[in-house]
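Throughout our pipeline, every protein is held as a single compact record rather than as scattered files. This encoding replaces a full spatial description with a residue-level series of whole-number codes. The remainder of this section carries one protein's record, kept here as part of the documentation.
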Amino acid sequence: MSAHPWMPQSPCGPSCVTGGQFRRVSIVRVALRVLSALAVLLSGLLVVAAKPVLRANTRLVVRRWFASLVRAFGVRIEVHGEPKFQATPGRGVLVVSNHVSWLDSLVLNAVQPMAMVAKLDIKGWPLLGGLISAAGSVFIDRERLSRLPRTVSELSEALRAGLAIGANPEGTTWCGISSGRFRPALLQSALDAGVPVRPVAIRYRVVDGTTARPAAFVGTEDLVTAMRRALRLRGLVVEVHVLPEIAPGRADNRRDLAGLAEAEVAGALGTTVASHTVPVGNGLDFQRA
């Protein structure tokens, strides 16, 4: 457990994502998903190169690209509530969501492209990290907390300029059964910029409604392990609940603002905040369709 409050850890680990019975696809289908995703990823390099030419159509093309990538991974997106995160075009908004999977930022950008606040490790992900960087993401080195005030200041400037910025205030991933406390630091940027905060709840499930814990990316596991497990799932659906904006002035300080957003997300998910019982089991129990 980290000694600094900005580096929280959830109790979620291998037993969270390897329990339960879930239907899986064949190895051939997994291979096809990987090949499809690689093709979309490579096409993303063309999208990045064509941004100066696309101009006004850039956001539409980028959104469709992210949607194609998520679909290539075998995931279906369901959007509930508002169709977009930014209620007023040209007005900045800080989008805060719970954090479950490596898919989260891809899914959110498939709804509406935006710059993401992400941990520095993501920048080093093969190909995908470069594309996320090209999207204008802001990376946080959680081991150098002295840079946090500067990061908050940069976010405030971007929000004042009318951008949509996405962040995961939990600071770590949870398996979806419960959720973590929203750390208030990044929400200071919305207060400083005088812009609304948009809470968004993300839930992964399979077609029968069961929470798809194998889709989570938790603990100290590597990205390849998490991706391989998610790619094997049949009928994976991600629900994106776009909740009402929290208008400027509703909270006097960042801690209260974080509490409001946290309560909205937990309420939409039906989860208990920061209370978690780790499931028993250490083997991924799939059921072949």
